[in-house]
Specification:
alpha+beta, Rossmann fold, Tumour Suppressor Smad4, six-stranded antiparallel sheet, 10 helices, 26 strands, disordered C terminus, ATP-NAD_kinase_N, kinase, NAD/diacylglycerol_kinase_sf
């Protein structure tokens, strides 16, 4: 069994770097500042953690969850209490990694066919073997890389690596920790390898976009040491459980706890895409939500994505970008033949059913995170819901900072020239000088 990572209680401040021993030295003082007088301010719960040795006070940040709604409406109305439906949802801002025991096995995934990743890969593997005494796993295809085998340092450690073959070997309960070197595709591949519980993933940006890879490789030793000691915030990236039901086959259902086996169940991190494939005709897809007919999609297809996938294919199709800590499923049409069909966001707990409409002139095709492409015939259906197995992605700083940094660096979100202030405009009007105009044009109007 690999050591199961735990997420510490909501009282743990996300901006501190404390191990379990240090955490136990703290005395907790809860200060309830919730609004008891029905003001318009949000409810705020502040927890002070006081270090008994140094008397430091670490004040935690706001919760990322919305405040609990007031449950009385007017003089008479209120929400009916149902103990069976009560849920405890942890504040995402407090999710931090800890280990039951020190991790011993690490899977290193590198970007394929990229010579620039070879040197960092050898440097990382060598450090993990020699400095941390860890068992390093790699895909068997890595050892067949001719450029890698020309490296003298790699040849000296080649025999110490443990290999697996994708599609043949089961890595369940064998890997404690995952390190990705490359772009976002390496994180998607890690998700594909683990179709149930996923070990914590630390992704280094050595690819092109790097939206899901927040770490820089320059000081990897220090960063990895902090993570292995349990000093890391986590983003739990939800995944979608997709089950294809064939009309010609007996239907098999499978629950997330693995009580029944089903070879056609796939977990995806970004999105599942249903499109018209090579057909020249419009897709005609029926969409159901919890068994109720919602609409028919007539266009090029449909994207069902996670919040993580909202910044991938979905955003290119006109959808909104959703923070990965928001529990939701995003439904986005691809080039719909309708001016009013806009993307929608539905609760994470619903089950979507997508099927080829009986009136459709053609079949449809489905792909899962860009893989396992297969045809959907008339009478077939695809069921999609949120899985209980997220991908625990390790943050470089925290959930909010990492995400907005990715928006700025990867997508250049909201980049534009700065608007001139009124003083600058009045100076131009008063002087009327061409020299002043040229001078203003040469000013730095772009905030870095």
């Amino acid at each position: 069994m690999f050591p199961i990572p735990m997420v510490q209680d909501a009282i743990f401040p996300r901006h501190s770097s404390l191990n379990i021993e240090e955490f136990n030295n703290f005395e907790l003082f809860d200060i309830n500042v919730s609004n008891n007088n029905n003001d318009n301010d949000d409810n705020v719960f502040i927890t002070d953690m006081v270090d008994l040795k140094s008397q430091r006070v670490l004040r935690r940040t706001r919760s990322l969850n919305a405040p609990s709604p007031f449950q009385q409406f007017g003089p008479c109305g209120r929400i009916m209490k149902n103990s069976a439906m009560v849920m405890q949802i942890q504040d995402p801002a407090s999710q931090r990694l800890t280990w039951y025991k020190p991790p011993l096995t690490v899977l290193v995934i590198k970007k394929v066919s990229d010579a620039s990743v070879l040197a960092p890969f050898v440097q990382l593997v060598e450090w993990l073997l020699q400095e941390k005494n860890m068992v390093v796993w790699v895909e068997s295809a890595v050892l067949e890389d001719s450029l890698l085998n020309e490296n003298d340092r790699f040849r000296s450690i080649r025999d110490k690596l443990v290999t697996f073959k994708d599609g043949r070997d089961d890595l369940t309960d064998r890997i404690d920790f995952i390190v990705c070197l490359g772009g976002d595709g390496t994180l998607l591949y890690a998700s594909l390898l683990f179709q149930q519980s996923v070990p914590p993933v630390m992704a280094f940006h050595l690819g092109s976009l790097g939206f899901l890879t927040p770490f820089r490789f320059d000081n990897f030793q220090e960063q990895l040491t902090n993570v292995l000691e349990g000093h890391a915030a986590l983003t739990l990236r939800s995944r979608l459980r997709c089950v294809v039901n064939r009309k010609s086959e007996k239907r098999h259902e499978r629950t997330d706890d693995g009580s029944k086996s089903a070879a056609n169940s796939i977990l995806v991190l970004n999105e599942v895409v249903i499109d018209r494939g090579p057909s020249p005709y419009l897709s005609n897809i029926d969409l159901f939500l919890d068994g109720k007919y919602i609409t028919s999609v007539q266009g090029d297809g449909l994207i069902v994505s996670t919040p993580t996938g909202s910044t991938a294919y979905a955003v290119a199709a006109g959808a909104s970008m959703i923070h990965p800590s928001v529990p939701a499923i995003l439904v986005t049409p691809i080039c719909p033949h309708s001016l009013s069909f806009r993307p929608i966001v539905v609760p994470a707990g619903v089950e979507l059913k997508i099927s080829v409409s009986p009136e459709s002139r053609n079949t449809s095709w489905v792909s899962f995170d860009g893989r396992n492409r297969q045809e959907l015939f008339h009478g077939d259906s695809l069921r999609v819901t949120t899985s209980i197995y997220p991908v625990p992605s390790i943050c470089a700083l925290d959930q909010i900072t990492d995400w907005f940094a990715s928006l700025a660096d990867g997508l250049h979100w909201n980049v534009r020239k700065r608007q001139k202030c009124l003083d600058e405009l009045s100076d131009l009007t008063a002087s009327g000088s061409e020299d002043t105009l040229d001078e203003l044009e040469n000013m730095k109007l772009y905030d870095v």
